[in-house]
């Protein structure tokens, strides 16, 4: 069956929901009728939305005026950052970096710590109240492209067994035709990747970090206190691993703690879930975590290449918004407000297209003009060489990051998988505090095991070489422990998958394929 709609939005994160809200608000105000449909592969809103969560909230005053008012408002679930500290960590010591030398953009005072999964739940309600249709549990499988124009998407079939045979509950994936398809499927989204491959390439390839995060409930008298944000550089990272740690106050005596690591790390055996446990042993951090109880955990990638890695953002019948467009500024470590402002810019361009009944890129090009006017592209341009400088390691990356905006050309960067170096090992001792099985349990991730595997290794022979040179990397870097090595072969446990996309990005041989599983399956992030 083919469904015909006006505007189809893939992904119910901040980007997709902001697009839907703004578009429906403007359609309603102008008394115009058009169907605005959001689909997400997860069975509930917020299940696959994860962020550190320090948020520049001004965009919400524009998108949902009055959002701060009322006892039940989303604002009540936020914590204002009043105390912001940056530390450099050595294994047993912490040095506070004076505010005077911290770049202004890394200042988070006046921002709000939020749970982006809670934000998605709330934005979903706002959207539905305006008349947006949201369908959950539907995975978009592929883009439909005809005569150089995106015509919609094909959804995944439901009810196939592990051999690909139809089960009694089989439902063929629908074909959805739309005048405009907006891709908001997040970091390294399957559909946005399909589209990006057809568009002119950006100056640099996209590069990514993996962020691992836990939510910890602390006793009321905890040493961390309220309204506080801490960022760290150094330990547990060596100088050739980009990234750092964070801790933020959350409501109800909770803190968000996490580690963000650039996926161009050289070590074949780096396991980011274990690195977070190592981070938590640092005396500065361990002191804050005393008597804390971990209540949730998860991981996701972050597109961190910045301005020069942003692909062309529009084509006939389609737009890219949010993480799928690469709207993240690593100088600020922020993407949520760009996702929201990007969605608003996309909505305004789509309204013009609906009014003109013209969905070609000639009209949709207004999206880029709107992005410029909204200030997003200016901010991203300011940080245009920030991430690239760190490819030379922290001692060169730090000073370079201070002068990066004066460098008159793009510093080039390579895809992350090329960063893994033959024979390089971290050789970390296993941490007993938590393993990946416990981490997966706290993420709530689950899949029906009797369905076709959504991860595959096309050439198992290459894994032999990988074992020799790169320590079977996927058995270390996958936060869900989907890959295990047995007798030189990789055994898969796809039901553990957190949908973070690290494996496609980091396998040194580009030897992993990942397709969305049946809709309704995957992580069940809570409060992340
Ligand atoms: C560890 C970490 C820390 C961060 N810290 C901060 C911070 O402090 N401040 C900040 O501003 N930003 C931060 N960011 C970045 C920020 O979280 C993102 O930029 C932002 O959430 C992106 O929103 P989005 O809507 O583009 O994508 P997402 O929130 O990822 O939404 C994508 C949606 O698409 C759905 N989807 C994907 N594929 C399909 C498919 N095939 N079919 C149907 N649905 C699909 C997913 O289920 C998901 O709901 C952080 C990110 C991470 C990972
Ligand atoms: S799938 Fe990739 S990362 Fe995993 S062992 Fe094989 S080649 Fe290495
Ligand atoms: S299989 Fe891939 S997408 Fe799934 S958790 Fe592991 S690295 Fe992430």
Automatic annotation (TrEMBL):
Its cofactor is FAD; [4Fe-4S] cluster. Keywords: Electron transport, FAD, Flavoprotein, Iron, Iron-sulfur, Metal-binding, Oxidoreductase, Transport, Ubiquinone. PROSITE patterns: 4FE4S_FER_1, 4FE4S_FER_2. It comes from the Bacteria. Binds 1 [4Fe-4S] cluster. Residues 488-517 form the 4Fe-4S ferredoxin-type domain. Its EC number is 1.5.5.1. The keyword Mitochondrion does not apply. The keyword Plastid does not apply. Transmembrane segments: none annotated. Accepts electrons from ETF and reduces ubiquinone. This is Electron transfer flavoprotein-ubiquinone oxidoreductase. It comes from Candidatus Danuiimicrobium aquiferis.
């Amino acid at each position: 069956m083919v469904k015909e709609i006006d505007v189809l939005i893939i992904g119910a994160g901040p980007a997709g929901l902001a697009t839907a809200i703004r578009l429906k608000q403007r359609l309603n105000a102008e008394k115009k009728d058009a169907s605005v449909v959001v689909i997400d592969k997860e069975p509930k809103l917020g299940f696959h939305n994860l962020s550190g969560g320090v948020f520049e909230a001004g965009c919400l005053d524009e998108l949902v005026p009055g959002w701060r008012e009322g006892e039940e408002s989303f604002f009540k679930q936020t914590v204002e950052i009043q105390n912001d500290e940056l530390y450099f960590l050595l294994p047993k010591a912490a040095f506070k970096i004076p505010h005077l030398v911290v770049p202004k953009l890394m200042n988070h005072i006046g921002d709000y710590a939020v749970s982006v999964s809670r934000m998605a739940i709330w934005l979903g309600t706002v959207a539905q109240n305006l008349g947006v249709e949201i369908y959950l549990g539907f995975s978009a499988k592929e883009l439909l492209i005809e005569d150089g124009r995106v015509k919609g998407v094909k959804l995944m079939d439901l009810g196939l067994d592990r051999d690909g045979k139809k089960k009694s509950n089989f439902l063929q994936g629908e074909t959805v035709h739309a005048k405009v398809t907006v891709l908001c499927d997040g970091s390294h989204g399957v559909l946005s990747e399909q589209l990006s491959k057809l568009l002119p390439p950006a100056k640099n390839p996209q590069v990514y970090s993996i962020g691992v995060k836990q939510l910890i409930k602390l006793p009321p008298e905890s040493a961390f206190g309220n309204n506080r944000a801490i960022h760290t550089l150094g330990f547990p990272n060596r100088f050739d691993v980009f990234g750092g740690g964070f801790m933020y106050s959350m409501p109800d005596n909770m803190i968000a703690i996490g580690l963000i690591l650039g996926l161009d790390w050289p070590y074949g055996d780096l396991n980011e879930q274990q690195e977070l446990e190592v981070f938590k042993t640092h005396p500065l951090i361990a002191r804050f975590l005393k008597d804390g109880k971990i209540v949730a955990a998860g991981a996701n990638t972050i597109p961190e290449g910045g301005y020069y890695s942003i692909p062309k953002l529009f084509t006939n019948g389609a737009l890219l918004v949010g993480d799928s467009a690469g709207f993240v500024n690593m100088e600020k470590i922020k993407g949520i407000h760009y996702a929201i402002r990007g969605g608003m810019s996309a909505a305004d361009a789509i309204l013009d297209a609906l009014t003109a009944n013209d969905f070609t890129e000639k009209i949709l090009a207004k999206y880029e003009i709107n992005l410029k006017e909204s200030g997003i592209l200016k901010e991203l341009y300011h940080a245009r060489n920030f991430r690239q400088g760190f490819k030379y390691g922290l001692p060169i990356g730090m000073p370079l990051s201070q002068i990066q905006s004066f460098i008159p050309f793009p510093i080039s960067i390579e895809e992350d998988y090329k960063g893994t170096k033959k024979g390089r090992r971290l050789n970390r001792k296993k941490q007993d505090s938590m393993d990946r099985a416990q981490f997966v349990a706290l993420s709530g991730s689950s899949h029906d095991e009797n369905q076709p595997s959504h991860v595959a290794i096309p050439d198992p022979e290459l894994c032999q070489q990988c074992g020799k040179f790169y320590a079977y990397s996927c058995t270390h870097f996958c936060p869900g422990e989907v890959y295990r090595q047995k007798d030189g072969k990789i055994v898969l446990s796809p039901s553990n998958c957190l949908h973070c996309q690290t494996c496609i990005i980091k396998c040194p041989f580009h030897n992993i394929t990942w397709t969305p599983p049946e809709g309704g399956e995957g992580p069940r992030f809570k409060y992340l």
